[in-house]
Amino acid sequence: MTNNTIRLATFDDCSSLIELNYKFNGVERSLVEVKQSLLNTNEIIALAICNDRAVGFGCAQYYNSFCYPEPHGEITELYVVEEERGKGWGSKIINLLEESLLQISVKEIKILTGHDNITAQKTYRKANYSLTDEVMYEKTIEDIIE
Predict the structure, then answer these.
(1) pTM of whole model > 0.85?
(2) How do the domains of the chain map onto residue ranges?
(3) Rg (CA), the chain
């Protein structure tokens, strides 16, 4: 019998989050940095557990602006280890992040992903996200300094 759960991450999960994040994007984070992220009141981190092993995570951010009456939300990261993909973990992580954002009155949630990330796009469509025609521009700090 498998023991599967999706829950919000806690300080006890820091080591698992460090490992998963490194697998996700190759960025090494320290224990202090991860603890600080967990303390960040504008970030929600969901963790997928299968048989007492962390197998995925998702992050959401929310912010308030004087321009709008309610906070805005964005799912910023979603990762599931390769051997657990296709088992519904991504959708379950999204569901928990959505529920958490709804509890703080977020009415709209955005997700950005790459044009080539077909697997993620399929997951987002399955979770009833719509493709928009928004155009995103970005600038690195190096571009500002030059």
Answers:
(1) yes
(2) 4-145
(3) 16
Rounded Cα gap, residues 30 and 28, in angstroms: 7
Q: How confident is the model at residue 15 (pLDDT cuts 50, 70, 90)?
A: very high
Residue 5 structure tokens: 């759960």
**CATH architecture, domain 4-145:** 3-Layer(aba) Sandwich (3.40)
When pLDDT is averaged across residues 27-45 and rounded to a whole number, the result is 92
Contacts 24+ apart (CB under 8 A), 112-116: 112/74, 112/76, 112/136
Dihedral sign for Cα atoms in the order 18, 19, 21, 25: positive
What's the token pair of residue 88?
Answer: 């519904």
Name the residue among 29, 25, 3 with its Cα closest to residue 16.
29
Helices and strands, number each (H, E), in the chain: 5, 5
Query: What tokens were used for 69?
Result: 């009456």
Alpha-carbon 123 to chain mean position: 13
